[in-house]
Amino acid sequence: MTGQNRKTCPNCGQGWRDRWIWDRHRRWGKDVPVTDVDSIGWEYDLCKIIALIEYKHRDAPGMEWAQLTTMLNTADELMIPAYKTEFMRDDETDDGEPLFWVTPLNPLADWITPGGWIPEEQYVGFLHEIRGRAIRSWETSTLRAYKARLKRVRREMEQRGLSESCEPEPKVPAA
Predict the structure, then answer these.
(1) Structural domain tally of the chain?
(2) pTM > 0.70: yes or no
(3) Tens digits of per-residue pLDDT, 76-133?
(4) Which of 41, 61, 74, 75 is the most exposed place for a label (fewest CB within 10 A)?
(5) DSSP 3-state assignment of 133?
(6) Range of the domain at 47
(7) Rounded CA gap, 87 and 98, in Å?
């Protein structure tokens, strides 16, 4: 595990707004759309918000009191669940599988919360479940095919001495 968080651009403040989670979320399919509101995702279905999820990289600082209170007040007024989801990207885990930890933030979120660090496929199932849907086999197949392709591309890049930013890795002088 690298334990490092990549910045998305030179002007990204603390660097905790990681595009990885949003890019990855888009790959999970049209049945689990999300909109980013300053790191709070509006999980929605059929044009109605069904949950608020604060996405945080596992090493990112926690939410400020005002952010958390606003999020919870909004969720309570809409009578929807609120969650915090911490994540580790696939390049940060030992087996190359992204992991997610879901924490309920209000009583409406308690009815369905997977426990501990869960793999991506189970997390996508959770996103479908909060919508009252089942994950379809073709979505699972697409996710698995994407992960297999990503592993092949990373292996090829490593063999060519390229990093994910497509810049050559710095050469370390021999001692």
Answers:
(1) 1
(2) no
(3) 999 999 999 999 988 888 888 899 999 999 999 988 888 889 998 889 989 988 888 8
(4) 61
(5) coil
(6) 19-159
(7) 7
